[in-house]
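SAMPLE LOG
Freezer: B-3
Tube label: C17
Construct: single chain, 170 aa
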Amino acid sequence: PNNRLEKVLFKITADPRVGSTKPFANIRNMSYFPNESEVLFMLGSIFQLNEVERNHGEDGKLAIIRMSLCGNTNDDFNKLYDYMKEQNGAEEINLLSLGHVLCSMGQFNLAEQYCHRFLKELSLVDSLRVDVYCELGIIAKSTEQYDKSLELYHKALECSMQSRPSDHVA
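STRUCTURE (predicted):
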């Protein structure tokens, strides 16, 4: 087995009386696995992360993630969303913008994870790769990894050079 893999158990609190949440349904009776209690959440559901607990029991690593289903009227979510919209202007809010907000909050590990995840989603010729490498360079510099920061800025420059037309004058 891969040592980087980790078992995850999601414990979700979902109150059907909260009117502004996306619909969800108990599908236990339709499950392929008879002993599992399964709930289906609609796409776009928003969860608040309450706690992450890591256990290293007999059968390996297990992360228990406790979350609560939120409505779109959740004050904390709305504040974060409004802040991200303000920071990005009219631009789309994506994993890079989330990474940027996390970086500005000092959450460098999380910021780096979201940036790397976003890089995996982008095509090799997407011009956003330049911005992602720049953000990763900022994160590395902020954590005093200066050599890594220079490498990432160089990677951003390479991407920028590749995405420019060959007759472009610098």
